[in-house]
């Protein structure tokens, strides 16, 4: 309420403050026709109801009724007037006796690297003589003390809003000169500028803050004042804005501040670079600001194909972000349509295709972009060595890039323009393989209809499109490919079929589909592992159950004699072990090295599996080819819980291997102190000698 009383107590033509003019609060509220009330909680004036704002907004449509913008400007003018009252000793027209002279040496004094901003241009204009010295005089305001904000109720509001509410201020305003002086003058005692205090108190620092704030707030009146400082502005215009990592022109271009770009182009370097070596055109093109791009491109010295650190050009960014009109404009200005980035060697067409921007793709193709652009053909041997991480992805054509991401419209467009649907990258991945591996059903259908080879294989794993889809669990794609005639038992690397691959990854739905389609359920890979072996090893109980129910051989052995039960026991798959035993799996099945499921579980430290197998009557004294028992393996592995369990179940604590070694001997050799202590406690013979007369503790 106190702020409002002071705000209406003076006019913009006043020069001094008079508290006698403040109206009483009750009188002020009564003048507002009951539209506002005073909140007793904080003494603030608020609308009487939320509908009041709507009423005022609708009333603004009446001819001659003040608009919200007019009201804001009037508030701003009052703030400026208030701050310039002589009562505060601010008085922008009254300077202190302190006179600061900044001497500027001749331009020949400076090297090219010392000043990369507009400072050199400023130097060139001083007296027009390179051999003379120049100087500039700066003034500061004389203020006796910081104004008492408790005495002046409107002061806090005025300081906070004088700049924010004068964005539409005209030079014809009655307060323009006061506004100008308020903006340009710094103060020795208290800060009233929204761009904050200046770290060195210099006029240059003050101007930098004013200019930066004007740009970020799109404050054209303040910008015009900064611009009027002439050569001095060139000292700061290309520096980073305070609190930002961008210079002014870059900032305005990035955020689409079209209204101030024209003014900035008068003194900012159009080809200046930021920390990423982006120009202003990079930012405008990447964000799709067409009008700003037009303004920037109107500059004679503009670099249309400027490259940043990653070698992206403005066209590359515009294409990658789907900005059709900006890309079209840049092409008209001669932008390089085949410019590649550093990381993936993508052209604008590849980038647009990868991200699914069909309109931009069509534009680039119509303008003659290489539809089969393949970076490998454009890179030297040395360049390829320097970018090893990019191998396997940089050789993809635009169509491959689009297929991988599932952009059907883009692929269809490129194919209609003659793009090769069988193009292979360095690892022999075709568009169909990429689409199938990523589960893009519609894309797979389109490519097959366009003649793509369903049996083409990638280089590393030798997988077909069906195998890729099965491996990644894309049931719909698997079903589609089978329906279109794909080989259901095609062998990949190591002789693995789609069913084997799906079982290895635990793709239950795909396995069911493949079995329903009549796949060979006993197909073996190069190690003679069946799909059931793969499923058991991965611990997928439902999948194991399904395969067994469909007739899979529960005792199928690999080249090393491992059955599904042995695989599950070795990997610690308790649920699968239990299921296989219930389905009749041989609990004493042995590998070529005479390992039983119990021996494998004891060696690997799977306590729960050991306990389960013992409950199912597994031979606790089973021996491998070297006559090592489960207790011997558990002791040598340091698996104390299993050792304790086996001893409790009656395992022979002195069982010897072919070389006469006991469980204690193995535990001692491996340094498993807790197991040694347990065995000794259980009565193990510490003096038992092996075939070489070594005791456990020797």
UniProtKB/TrEMBL annotation:
Pfam families reported in the protein's UniProt record: Ank_2, Ank_4
SUPFAM superfamilies tied to this protein: Ankyrin repeat
Gene Ontology molecular functions: protein-cysteine S-palmitoyltransferase activity
Repeat positions for ANK: 310-342, 344-376, 394-426, 427-459, 461-493, 494-526, 527-559, 560-592, 593-625, 626-658, 659-691
Keywords noted in UniProt: ANK repeat, Repeat
Protein name in the entry: Ankyrin repeat protein
Lineage start: Eukaryota, Fungi, Dikarya, Ascomycota, Pezizomycotina
């Amino acid at each position: 309420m106190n702020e409002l009383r002071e705000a209406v107590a003076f006019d913009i033509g006043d020069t001094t403050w008079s508290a006698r003019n403040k109206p009483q609060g009750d009188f002020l509220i009564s003048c507002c026709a009951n539209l506002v009330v005073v909140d007793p909680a904080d003494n603030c004036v608020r609308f009487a109801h939320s509908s009041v704002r709507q009423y005022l907004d609708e009333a603004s449509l009446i001819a001659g009724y003040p608009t919200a913008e007019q009201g804001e400007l009037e508030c701003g003018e009052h703030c400026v007037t208030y701050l310039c009252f002589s009562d505060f000793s601010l008085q922008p027209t009254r300077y202190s006796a302190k006179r600061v002279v900044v001497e500027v040496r001749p331009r020949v004094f400076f090297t090219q690297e010392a000043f990369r901003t507009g400072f050199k241009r400023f130097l060139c204009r001083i007296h027009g003589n390179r051999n003379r010295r120049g100087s500039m005089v700066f003034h500061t305001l004389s203020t006796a003390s910081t104004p008492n904000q408790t005495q002046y109720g409107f002061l806090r509001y005025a300081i906070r809003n004088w700049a924010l509410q004068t964005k539409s201020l005209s030079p014809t305003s009655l307060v323009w000169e006061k506004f100008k002086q308020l903006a340009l003058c710094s103060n020795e005692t208290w800060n009233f500028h929204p761009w904050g205090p200046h770290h060195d108190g210099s006029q240059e620092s003050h101007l930098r803050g004013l200019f930066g704030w004007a740009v970020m707030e799109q404050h054209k009146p303040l910008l015009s004042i900064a611009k009027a400082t002439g050569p001095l502005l060139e000292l700061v215009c290309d520096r980073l804005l305070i609190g930002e990592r961008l210079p002014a022109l870059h900032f305005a271009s990035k955020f689409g501040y079209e209204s101030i770009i024209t003014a900035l182009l008068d003194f900012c370097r159009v080809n200046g670079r930021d920390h990423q070596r982006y120009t202003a055109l990079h930012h405008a093109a990447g964000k799709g600001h067409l009008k700003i791009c037009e303004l920037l491109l109107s500059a004679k010295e503009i670099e249309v194909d400027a490259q940043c650190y990653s070698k992206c050009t403005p066209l590359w960014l515009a294409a990658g972000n789907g900005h059709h009109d900006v890309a079209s404009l840049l092409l008209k200005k001669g932008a390089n349509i085949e410019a590649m980035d550093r990381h993936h060697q993508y052209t604008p067409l590849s980038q647009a295709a990868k991200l699914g921007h069909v309109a931009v793709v069509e534009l680039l193709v119509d303008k003659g972009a290489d539809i089969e652009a393949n970076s490998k053909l454009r890179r030297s041997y040395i360049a390829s060595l320097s970018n090893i991480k990019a191998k396997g992805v940089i050789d993809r054509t635009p169509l491959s890039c689009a297929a991988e991401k599932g952009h059907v419209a883009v692929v269809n467009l490129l194919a209609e323009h003659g793009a090769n649907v069988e193009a292979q990258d360095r690892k022999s991945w075709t568009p169909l393989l990429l689409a199938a591996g990523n589960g893009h059903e519609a894309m797979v259908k389109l490519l097959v209809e366009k003649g793509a080879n369903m049996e083409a294989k990638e280089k590393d794993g030798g997988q077909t499109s069906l195998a890729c889809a099965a491996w990644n669990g894309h049931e719909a794609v698997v079903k589609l490919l089978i329906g279109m005639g794909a080989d259901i038992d095609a062998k990949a690397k190591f002789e693995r079929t789609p069913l084997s691959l799906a079982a290895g990854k635990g793709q239950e739905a795909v396995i069911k589909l493949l079995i329903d389609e009549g796949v060979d359920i006993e197909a073996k890979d190069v190690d003679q592992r069946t799909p059931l072996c793969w499923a058991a090893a991965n611990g997928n109980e439902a999948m194991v159950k399904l395969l067994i129910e469909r007739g899979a051989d529960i005792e199928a052995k690999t080249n090393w004699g491992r059955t599904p039960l042995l695989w599950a026991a070795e990997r610690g798959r308790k649920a699968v072990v239990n299921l296989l035993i219930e389905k009749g799996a041989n609990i004493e099945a042995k590998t070529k090295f005479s390992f039983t499921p119990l021996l494998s579980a004891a060696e690997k430290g799977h306590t729960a599996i050991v306990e389960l197998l013992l409950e199912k009557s597994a031979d606790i004294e089973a021996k491998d080819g070297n006559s090592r028992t489960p207790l011997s393996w558990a002791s040598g592995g340091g698996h104390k819980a299993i050792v304790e369990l086996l001893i409790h179940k009656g395992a022979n604590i002195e069982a010897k291997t072919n070389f006469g070694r006991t469980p204690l001997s193995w535990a001692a050799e491996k340094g498993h102190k807790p197991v040694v202590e347990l065995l000794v406690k259980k009565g193990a013979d510490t003096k038992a000698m092996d075939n070489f007369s070594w005791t456990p503790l020797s």
